[in-house]
Every structure is written in C-alpha cells, then in structure tokens.
Specification:
- The protein starts with 15 loop residues before the first helix and ends in an 11-residue tail after the last helix.
- The strands form 2 sheets. Strands 1, 2, 3, 4, 5, 6, 7 and 8 form an 8-stranded mixed sheet that branches. It has a two-stranded antiparallel ribbon with strand order 9-10.
- It has 19 helices and 10 strands.
- A hairpin with a 7-residue loop joins strand 6 and strand 7.
- It is about 55% helix and about 10% strand.
- The chain is α+β, with helices and mostly antiparallel strands.
- Bound molecules: flavin-adenine dinucleotide.
- Flavin-adenine dinucleotide binds next to strand 3 and helix 11.
- Flavin-adenine dinucleotide (FAD) binds next to strand 3 and helix 11.
C-alpha cells in the first residue's frame, strides 16, 4: 500500500536507526492520542511536550546534522526526512512547522563557510534547540529585494543590526535565527545569526492565532561581529534562495500527511453512516468523490517521492530538481486542497466537529500553498523551464530510487542560484511512450496539441509579458511534468494499471479544464483557441476499471486506520 498507515508501518529503510526514529515518532503521537492533540490545538498550547521528546530522542539532531558535524548515524538524508515530514503532517501541522522552520534556519548555517557557527549549530541540535529563518518582512512579502533589516558598520569592524522581521517561526525560542539583511553603507546582502535571548532582540508578538509562534521581532542596535556573519553579497542571496529550494519541497509532504489522515477518517465515517437505509458509501457520487480524492492523493505521493530522487541525484551539472521542487510546492499542495474539498463534501457536518482530525486538516491544508512563495511565485519560476523542457531535451543517466543511507552533501553546496534558463531536462516522450493505457494515450494527444500551440501559435510578446496568461500556460506545463514523474514512479512502485489509468482519468480532465482557461482568456488568439479545443478531451470511461479501483483500493481502506483516542 502506498499510503502511510502508522499502524502498519512498513516503509523500507536501509538501517535500523531510521526505522526506529519513525516508530518513535508514531508512538509519541499515538500515545498522546487524538483527544489531547485536539485539546492542545484548540487551546493553542505551545508544544513543549513534543520538543522535549525531540530532545530526549535526539531526533532533529539525528536527522538535521550533516554527517561531518554529527555523531555516527547522524546525517541529512532526504529519503528518511521525507517520511518524518509525512508523519508530522499526518498528526498535526503545528508539529511539522517547528521542524520545517528549523530546516530553513539551518539551511544558511550549513551552507556557510563559518565553521564555528556550524559547530555551534551541531551542539545546539544535540541540546534540543530549534532554529529559525528570518527572511520575510512585514512590508515586503515576496519582494525580498526590498529587505530593510540592516547592518551598520562601526569603526572597530563590528556592526549594529537594526530592523524588523515578520512571520518568523520559532523566533521565540531559537538561539540561532538566520537573518537576512543588507549592509547599511553598500547595500550588499548579508546573512547573520541573532539570538532571541539577547537584550537587544525584541520579540514583539505572535502574528498568528495558533499553537505555533510565528513571530514579529525587532533588532535594536543588536551587536554583530564577523563571528555571527554567515555570508555576504551574492553568496548570502544564493543561500536564501537555495535554502528555500530545499524547504519548499517539504510542504508537499505536509499536505500528503494531512490528506492521508483525513482520508482514513472520512472513509471510515462515510462507510459507517447510514442514510435512507444504506451507507453513504453506496451513493455513486460518493464513489466518484472518494476515487478522485484517493487517486489525487496517490499521485501527489508518487510525484513527491520521485522529486526526491532527483534532489538526491542533483549536482552542478544536473539541476532538474529546480523545476520539480517548485512543482511539489505549488501543485502537490493545491492538489491537497482539492483532496480535502472532495472529502469534506462527503462527510459534510462531521468535518466541523471539534474532536475530529478533519476539522484541523480543513484549516491547515490552506496554509501550504501560501508558505515559502505563493503558488503564483512558483508558477512564474516554473515557466522559465518550459522552452528547454519541450524543445531542447538532453541525455542524463537514469535516476533510480534513491533510498540509500547517504548524506545529501549537494543540498548545502548548490552553487549560484542563477542560470535557470540554461537547465536542461531528459526527454519526456519516451517516458509516456512506455505506457499504453487508454487515458495515458489521451493525455499524450493533449500534450501534442499543447506543444503545437507553443510551436505554431507561439505566445507573442504582449502575451509573454502578461503574467495572467503566462500562469495559465504554466498550469498546463506543470501538469505535463507532474504526469511524467508520476509515470516514472509508477514503474518503480509497480502501480497497477487500473489505478494508473484512473489517475490519468483526472489528469485528462484537469488538462481540459486548463485548456478551457487559456481559451477563455481575453488575449488568446483564434489560432490558440483552436489548439485549446484540441486539448479538451473526455477521459476514457471504463465502469469495470472504476469499480475495481473503488472496491479493491479505496473502499477497502474504510477500517484501515483510526488514531488512538
Ligand atoms: C504561517 C506563516 C509562517 C511563515 N513562516 C515564515 C518563516 O519562518 N520565515 C520567513 O522568512 N517567512 C515566513 N512566512 C512568510 C511567507 O513565506 C510569505 O507569506 C510568502 O513569502 C508570501 O508573502 P506574502 O504572503 O506577504 O504575499 P505577498 O508577497 O504580499 O504577495 C501578494 C500577491 O502578489 C503575488 N506575487 C508576489 N510576487 C510575485 C511574483 N514574482 N510573481 C507572481 N506573483 C507574485 C502573490 O502570489 C500574491 O498573490 C510565513 C508566513 C506564514 C503565513
């Protein structure tokens, strides 16, 4: 079974410690129980119990210390971090968030050449510390060029930091807050660390109403010396972007974890609820909604797992992960919203009940598309790769499943963030040609029509400058890449034909919807509209296949998992 089931934990690990970490994490939450998780959520209780457990079991230390700075068995290993992410999302986004912002805070530290700060971070991890990433500012949102936090040089060679940061998780408790700013005199970018315990560090407030502390903080003449500086200039800029390249990937796992738990809860409820002398799961439209939710969820997981293989295989010569990770970020997380919408339409009022996991899921699933760059920011990034993806493929050695117990060195040595337009991809066509299923074949025709639009009705200069139009094209491009990696992983995970063709049933429908969107744009040309009509297709109906997927793979999960009360 591809979905996580904490009560039948069977993921492959090459070593015992990795398995132990996941089992400890599951045991912590199952022992805590759903009632207490929900009580803490409603009361917005700071998760001191969780952080104490993390410290006792050396969890963040084991998972977030690169091998060369840690004890034996410590390493930054994306394969195992994936599941840690997923389990945290499965039990509560608040727990995931403190881990996630620790990852972001550690990014610039592990990328830095400042060895003593790295040793300090490794020691703090052992002591159970959390970390924070101070990039955003209240007035500037996604526009980090406008950062106002500044370091003013003093005659003795030290600096005074002044400025405010906003939306910074863990900034109430992190002894190392990786903070982005500019030199007051030269305007050069800089990354430095600040300590929340310093008297010139003002913790202003928690800007959210949640268990998390998402801080507004200010530095007032906060003294900084070379010892606290992580990097300057383009190196500081790159470490900000390269950290987000890693961090944004985790958002997909949070969505997958949330959706998986919500799915189990929803199908259990629906199968046991009787209306008009039958179960809710007897309604044909409920079959459709559950099959859609399940296939979307499996697709989210197949794509995200495959993206990790590329991230672990990345090098300065192979930067394909820079396309796949933003897709995890914007596509997987928005698919997560759709999964929750579908499930909520089935369970209706139950989704409001305070003692369900679902009530929390319905709120939290909305956060993921908005963190670490909005959906738009990520599509705007994704479209930069479109020309090379479709028209300029190249050869790479095949990338297998990357589940070996290795430290992912390249993540902290990603090099300059620029040059995205030069990145090339392996040809998508052979991947699709390796399958002959009705809906995959329809999808291939849709891709061909889109490629024809790009070749023979190429968006003109005005259209290329229109972000709204570009985003609409970007949605289709994203869908093609999404489908490609799903297929690559379908082979690796031996996904059966029924399920795969059912996944492509929704992918064909989504393709058609996005084509209609381009068709409807005020500035689309008649020629482009013709190509859009070619892209609008109906999936291949097969009642027997649908019935098998429903019975064997979806309905069969009705009693698969229930969290301990
Ligand atoms: C709960 C929470 C926790 C957070 N934690 C942290 C943290 O720990 N550290 C941290 O540094 N930040 C954190 N953030 C900030 C988060 O990363 C920002 O919310 C995000 O970068 C977007 O900024 P914004 O929400 O202010 O949107 P804005 O930047 O105000 O965007 C407004 C609109 O403009 C669009 N837009 C902006 N730029 C572009 C573009 N280039 N192309 C196309 N459209 C564009 C956006 O899509 C959006 O629709 C957190 C935010 C929240 C809500």
């Amino acid at each position: 079974m591809i979905l996580l089931n904490p009560k039948q934990h069977d993921r492959y690990y090459p070593d015992g410690r990795s398995r132990e970490i996941m089992q400890l994490l599951i045991a912590f939450f199952e022992k805590k129980g759903l009632k207490k998780v929900k009580q803490d959520d409603h009361a917005r209780t700071w998760y001191a119990d969780f952080l104490e457990f993390v410290k006792q079991e050396q969890l963040f230390a084991s998972l977030l210390t690169p091998a060369q700075y840690g004890e034996p068995g410590y390493r930054w290993d994306t394969w195992r971090n994936c599941e840690f992410n997923e389990i945290l999302g499965f039990y509560g986004l608040a727990y995931w968030y403190t881990w996630q912002v620790s990852i972001l805070g550690l990014g610039p530290i592990w990328m830095s050449k400042n060895e003593s700060l790295k040793l300090k971070a490794a020691q703090l991890l052992k002591e159970g510390a959390v970390f924070a990433f101070g990039l955003s500012e209240r007035a500037h949102g996604a526009d980090i060029y406008s950062t106002e936090m500044s370091l003013t040089p003093l005659p003795d060679g030290t600096y005074l930091a002044n400025g405010e940061k906003y939306y910074i998780g863990n900034a109430n408790l992190a002894p190392m807050v990786s903070t982005f700013g500019k030199m007051a005199d030269t305007g050069e970018y800089v990354f430095f660390v600040a300590d929340y315990r310093h008297k010139n560090y003002e913790l202003i407030k928690n800007v959210t109403a949640s268990q998390n502390y998402v801080a507004q903080f200010a530095l007032h003449d906060y003294p900084i010396s070379e010892a606290e500086i992580l990097a300057r200039g383009s190196e500081a800029w790159d470490m900000g972007l390269n950290t987000v390249n890693i961090g944004k990937y985790n958002l997909g796992w949070a969505s997958i974890g949330i959706c998986t738990h919500a799915f189990y809860e929803a199908i259990h409820h629906a199968a046991n609820r009787r209306l008009y002398n039958m179960s809710v799961t007897d309604f044909p439209h409920v079959h459709q909604m559950f099959v859609d939710a399940y296939t979307r969820l499996v697709a989210m997981k197949l794509f995200t797992l495959r993206a990790a293989d590329y991230m672990r295989s990345a090098s300065l010569q192979d930067r394909r992960y820079l396309l796949y990770n933003p897709i995890v970020k914007m596509k997987v997380t928005t698919q997560g919203e759709q999964v929750i919408d579908l499930l909520w339409d089935v369970i209706a009022a139950k989704g409001f009940e305070g003692d369900t996991f679902f009530e929390m899921a319905a709120r939290d699933i909305r956060a993921l598309p908005k963190l670490e760059g909005t959906v738009h920011v990520n599509i705007a990034l994704i479209v930069k790769f479109m020309a090379n993806y479709f028209f300029n493929p190249t050869e790479y050695a095949p990338v297998p499943r990357r589940d070996e117990p290795a430290n992912d060195d390249f993540l902290f040595d990603q090099g300059p963030a620029r040059g995205l337009g030069k990145i090339r991809f392996h040809d998508y066509l052979p991947v699709f040609s390796g399958f002959d299923l009705p809906n995959i074949n329809i999808f291939k025709e849709q891709i061909a029509a889109f490629k024809d639009l790009m070749s023979f009705a190429t968006p003109d200069e005005t259209q290329q400058k229109d972000v709204d139009f570009l985003l609409a094209l970007g949605e289709i491009f994203t869908l093609v890449v999404y489908a490609q990696l799903i297929l690559e992983n379908a082979k690796i995970y031996h996904v059966n034909d029924d399920l795969l063709d059912q996944i492509f049933d929704f992918l064909v429908r989504d393709f058609s919807r996005h084509a209609l969107n381009i068709y409807s744009k005020a500035i689309s040309t008649p020629k482009q509209m013709d190509y859009c009509l070619r892209m609008i297709c109906k999936p291949a109906a097969d009642a027997a296949r649908f019935g098998r997927v429903w019975e064997e793979q979806v309905y069969s999960l009705k009693d698969a998992y229930k969290m301990n009360p």
